[in-house]
Amino acid sequence: MDYQLFKAINRLAGRNSMLDKYMIAVSKKYYFLLIIVLIYISLTGYIDRKVVKKALVSYCLSISIAYVLNQFFYKPRPFLEHQVNLLIPAKKTSSFPSKHTLFLFVVSSTLFFHDRIVGSYLWGLSVLTGISRVWLGHHYPFDILGSAIIGSMTSSVVERLENAKFSLK
């Protein structure tokens, strides 16, 4: 089923150059948009500045989980196993989990806990970015889904631990 979903999305790549350029831009640039959002929060205090710390802690936790998973589990990227529409080159590292997607969902989920409107908007853009990673031929849909779950769950755990710590005082 994962490969069938991959094919359904990836076969659309290469049919419309404007859409391909858009998906490439989403995949490459959205990552930086979230970094800018975090910097903005740090500098202006738009949302509690502790949110940036929580996002960084959550990301470190997510990357640690990804590292452990990669030590025991290697999943070849789609372009290594199948004929795909590969729009831009990619590393030959494990397809799961997607570190790119981990970061996006960590930040989006962390912000969601503090500003539901901003978090929802960014979470939607994170989903679009995940689709773009499949579109480009870099990941399978379940890689994106699994990374979204790991990123969101680590943010949730960090948020709950932080809230529990302050509620005990």
Automatic annotation (TrEMBL):
Record-given protein name: Undecaprenyl-diphosphatase
Alphabetical list of PANTHER family matching this protein: SPHINGOSINE-1-PHOSPHATE PHOSPHOHYDROLASE, UNDECAPRENYL-DIPHOSPHATASE BCRC
Any Gene Ontology CC annotation: plasma membrane
Highest taxon above the source species: Bacteria
Domain spans labelled Phosphatidic acid phosphatase type 2/haloperoxidase: 53-159
Coiled-coil segments: none
UniProtKB keywords: Membrane, Transmembrane, Transmembrane helix
Chain segments annotated as transmembrane: 30-47
Keyword match Cell membrane: no
GO-annotated molecular function: undecaprenyl-diphosphatase activity
